[in-house]
Each structure stands twice: as C-alpha cells, then as structure tokens.
Write the structure tokens for this entry.
Amino acid sequence: MTQSQLFALMHTLSDFPDGKTYEEVQQMLIDGDDFMSVWEKMECWSIEDVLEYQDELEKGVRELYI
C-alpha cells in the first residue's frame, strides 16, 4: 500500500486491518465488513461517497508528492 493510499484510509476509517491492499480494504467496506468503520463525521455518507472521497484524497496526496 502506498503512503497516499494509507493516508486516505487513515483519514476516513476508524479501523481497518493491517496487511490488506487499498483495494481489499475498500472492498471490505463495500461488503459491509463488521471490522470496518468510517469516521463519525462520515457515518451518514453513502459507501459510494466515502469511496469517492478516499480516491480523491489519495489522488490529491499522490499528486502533491510526485
């Protein structure tokens, strides 16, 4: 997992498992895995909105450091 992907996950999820790829963590979120929880401020967001925000955040961080 890249630093920008880790940044995006850490800024949207309260918990997520170690040793998974960015895509695996996002799939767990889609699947409604009990281990996954979004930050309280995002609880009313749809999963699609959370995923889109994660991807936009990851892209923004990656572009800053390329």
